[in-house]
Design a protein that fits this description.
There is one protein chain. This protein is mostly beta strands and 202 residues long. Helix content is 10%, strand content 38%. The protein contains two helices and 15 strands. The N terminus and C terminus are likely disordered.
Length: 202
């Protein structure tokens, strides 16, 4: 019963979120590495800034990690993930307190939130395992419901990333996360308002 009450409080709080948060310089990237069956939330990659993000992996079986960085603080994130239409579906694991949605097929969207304010410059909200049968690109893209990528700060303000870096696998080259990236609206369109506020509204 307590967990249901906590969930209801968080949902109601997020439904009143306003635009214009404290993460104006936020960026997002896809970090990739060889698949590990021993991967857990406590063993997520250590990333302190953009120079630690790896966006190119030559192999076929790999883990990808959405990395939101250049943050001040955060309470939630919302995004989608896209990749070529490979044969295998994604096995995604969330590392947040609450999650709505799942990443199984290209273009799926997910929203994460935490019960308490999280201080820090980097958040990896989870990871997915994919198997590529040809070269391709994995990107963070707009959530299909909000049509945006959002970061919710601790004062319920929303920001969109100012840069977006995709990963290349199995022979494709990823973006350079130390450069300007693809712009805050991601590789497939422009963002609109709504975001976490609308998605979490009961």
């Amino acid at each position: 019963m307590r967990s249901v009450l906590v969930f209801a409080i968080v949902v109601l709080g997020l439904s009143n979120a306003g635009l214009g948060g404290g993460n104006h310089a936020a960026e997002v990237a896809v970090h990739v590495k060889a698949h590990s069956a021993k991967q857990t939330c406590p063993t997520l990659p250590t990333i302190s800034d953009s120079s630690d993000i790896v966006t190119t992996y030559e192999g076929s079986s790999f883990d990808f990690f959405p990395v939101f960085f250049s943050l001040t603080e955060f309470r939630g994130v919302e995004y989608g993930v896209t990749w070529p239409d490979w044969t295998y579906s994604c096995a995604f694991t969330s590392c947040s307190d609450l999650v709505i949605g799942d990443i199984e097929s290209p273009g799926d969207g997910i929203s994460h939130s935490w019960f308490d304010c999280q201080m820090g410059q980097v958040v990896i909200p989870g990871w997915g395992w994919l198997y590529a049968d040809s070269a391709g690109i994995v990107c963070i893209t707009e959530h299909p419901s909000s049509e945006a990528i959002y970061i919710l700060d601790c004062n319920q303000g929303l920001d969109e990333p100012v840069a977006n870096f995709c990963a290349g696998v199995y022979g494709a080259t990823g973006d350079d996360p130390t450069s300007n990236g693809r712009g805050g609206d991601g590789p497939e369109g422009t963002g609109t308002s709504g975001g976490i506020r609308g998605y979490y509204r009961p």
